[in-house]
């Protein structure tokens, strides 16, 4: 039924309908203030309550230990590509990066502007999986070890937490899979996530940082050619003016996660939805083709070609057109890799995944 829409955008992406409806209902009168959330003062008690509630929900849903701060920043994931080295490249000026896709590659390149950053293995230009940890070369003097848990463009996701050496803090970009599986925060020095995939709308970044890593930066921002004073938005040891409507949306999405079975249930659904689509790919005898090694397949962003390993572009175009005509939207792969990408974030329902699965089967059978 083409009147039903399923939205598979990679980011910005689906926000739960229940949340959108609530935002709509409250738009003219936020928390009995007689003004909207877009207009209300960020210093008002009402808005302060939203910020505090958001931080508490994050702590609750992710079981954040007491020795971590939950920080809400501007600047998105890209902001943190600079924020991480600015705050952590402190003791040695060196850092290790695990490059498994386009986003960690970008972070690695950004990190190079600030210090001696090293890639722990030789990367090829196409990303299809994660080389075994035994083959990584880790620098014992690294200030941190950086990786991206889920590569949104390539569709590569870690199925393990990397081991660091000699208490080197682990830093993780979880922009596109945060709150989609249970993980032990205490294994990390810093976890960050732009909100616009799994937890809200664009323009707000969630950062969890271990207390002992705060305030250790040795650089003064004036030392930098890049960004100079505006970088104050990126520091972990400054109290941030959290005047963002996006925190309000984040707050509502976190409440929605809690009401819908918490992270445990999000994880269960992520496995159910993604397995459904990978099964169609695996049963298709190469008609649908995934380049990603099975143990690194993303549960969030399923990338595949139509018509064989290199893709038949005319057939892919037809696939996308017919999908859109059936209300299955935003399935085009990232322009750098082509093909199809189905993003199955938390707000994408099992029913959406079923609709996509059935469409894929029918499309194949018709050719
Ligand atoms: N990291 C990952 C894994 C991403 O998917 C993205 C955005 N697609 C970014 C970082 C960059 O985030 P932003 O657009 O918020 O700067």
From TrEMBL:
KW Hydrolase (keyword) present: no
This protein's record includes keyword Amino-acid biosynthesis: yes
InterPro entries, per the entry: Aminotrans_V_dom, Aminotrans_V_PyrdxlP_BS, Pser_aminoTfrase, PyrdxlP-dep_Trfase, PyrdxlP-dep_Trfase_major, PyrdxlP-dep_Trfase_small
Source superkingdom: Eukaryota
Entry's Gene Ontology cellular component terms: cytoplasm
Pathway the protein contributes to: Amino-acid biosynthesis; L-serine biosynthesis; L-serine from 3-phospho-D-glycerate: step 2/3
A single GO BP: L-serine biosynthetic process
Cofactor: pyridoxal 5'-phosphate
Record-annotated Aminotransferase class V domain positions: 8-353
Family: Belongs to the class-V pyridoxal-phosphate-dependent aminotransferase family. SerC subfamily.
Name of the molecule in the record: Phosphoserine aminotransferase
Record lineage: Eukaryota, Metazoa, Ecdysozoa, Arthropoda, Crustacea
């Amino acid at each position: 039924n083409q009147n039903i829409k399923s939205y598979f955008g990679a980011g910005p992406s689906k926000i739960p309908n229940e949340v959108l409806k609530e935002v709509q209902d409250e738009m003219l009168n936020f928390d009995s203030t007689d003004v909207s959330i877009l207009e209300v003062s960020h210093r008002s008690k009402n808005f302060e309550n939203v910020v505090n509630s958001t931080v508490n929900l994050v702590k609750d849903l992710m079981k954040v230990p007491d020795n971590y701060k939950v920080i809400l920043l501007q600047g998105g994931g890209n902001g943190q590509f600079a924020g991480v080295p600015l705050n952590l490249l402190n003791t040695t000026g060196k850092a290790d990066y695990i490059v498994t896709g386009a986003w960690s590659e970008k972070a690695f390149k950004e990190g190079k502007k600030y210090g001696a950053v090293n890639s722990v293995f030789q990367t090829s230009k196409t990303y299809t999986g994660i080389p075994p940890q035994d083959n990584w070369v880790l620098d014992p003097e690294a200030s941190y070890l950086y990786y991206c848990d889920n590569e949104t463009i390539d569709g590569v996701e870690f199925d393990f937490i990397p081991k660091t050496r000699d208490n080197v803090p682990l830093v993780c970009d979880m922009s596109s899979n945060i709150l989609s599986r249970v993980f032990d925060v205490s294994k990390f020095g810093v976890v960050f996530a732009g909100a616009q995939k799994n937890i809200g709308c664009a323009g707000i970044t969630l950062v969890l940082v271990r207390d002992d890593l705060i305030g250790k930066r040795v650089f003064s921002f004036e030392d930098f050619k890049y960004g100079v004073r505006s970088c104050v938005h990126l520091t972990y040891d400054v109290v941030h003016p959290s005047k963002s409507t996006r925190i309000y949306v984040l707050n509502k999405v976190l409440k929605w996660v809690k009401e819908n079975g918490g992270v445990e249930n999000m994880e269960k659904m992520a496995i159910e939805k993604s397995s459904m689509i990978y099964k169609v790919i695996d049963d298709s005898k190469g008609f649908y083709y995934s380049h990603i090694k099975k143990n690194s397949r993303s549960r969030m962003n399923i990338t595949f070609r139509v018509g064989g390993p290199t893709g038949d572009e005319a057939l892919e175009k037809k696939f996308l057109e017919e999908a859109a005509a059936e209300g299955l939207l935003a399935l085009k792969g990232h322009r750098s890799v082509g093909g199809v990408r189905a993003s199955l974030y938390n707000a994408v329902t099992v029913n959406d995944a079923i609709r996509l699965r059935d469409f894929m089967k029918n499309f194949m059978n018709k050719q």
